[in-house]
Amino acid sequence: MLREEFTQPCIGIMEASLYASRMCGERLSVITTGQRSRFLHEDSINTTYGLGSFLAGCDAADVSVLELESKPKEEVYEGLVSAAKRLVDKGADCICLGCAGMTEMQEVCQKAVGMNEREVMVVDGVAMGVQFLIGLVREGLGTAKRGMYRSAAMGRERRGQTWI
Asked: Which residues form the signal peptide (predicted)?
């Protein structure tokens, strides 16, 4: 909906991390919070983004979003590191952090999978989203309005709808 209503570029954090992972490696993966989220991410990667053929897998850290902050850090890190190592064992060379709440945990995952040796990249979608948007704005690019993202404002106006 944002793309329909605004000409400025829009990008989601998952979209940003997946695209960055495709640019940096061949086999991407995602660490999610819980098992349910794992299935949703796998489905989105396959259907929404069409990147299923590059997916090494998704694995859960087995914490809820709220537990990323409320649980002891060591316990949360243990779940993330275990998931990251399992994904590397499945062939991942890029790991996306699958939740905005994991942003501050990127370094822990990087150390666990050998990013210093440039073997495996760990991608934070929040940071990548910001960087992609900066690049798009600097290049003067925005959302194309000819097709899919044509504004629905006139239709709302005809219906007398005053809200988005």
From this structure: none
Nearest partner of 22 among 124, 130, 94, judged by Cα: 94
Residue range 30-50, pLDDT digits in tens: 999 999 999 999 999 999 999
Beta-ladder partners of 94: 28, 121
Whether residue 164 is contained in a domain is answered as no
Q: What residue type is assigned to position 69 of the chain?
A: E
Cβ atoms within 10 Å, residue 91: 12
Report angle CA 34, 24, 81 to the nearest 5 degrees. Answer: 35
Please report, to the nearest 10 degrees, the dihedral formed by the alpha carbons of residues 96, 79, 41, 20 taken in order: 0
Q: What is the pTM of this model?
A: 0.87
The answer to whether residue 1 scores a pLDDT higher than 90 is: no
Residue 28 host element (H or E): strand 28-32
Q: What is the CA radius of gyration of the chain?
A: 18
Length of the chain: 164
CA angle 56/54/18 to nearest 5° reads: 95
Q: Whole domain around residue 43: which residue ranges?
A: 2-159
- The residue with tokens 């996306």 is 96
What is the three-class DSSP state of 138?
A: helix
What's the number of domains the chain is made of? 1
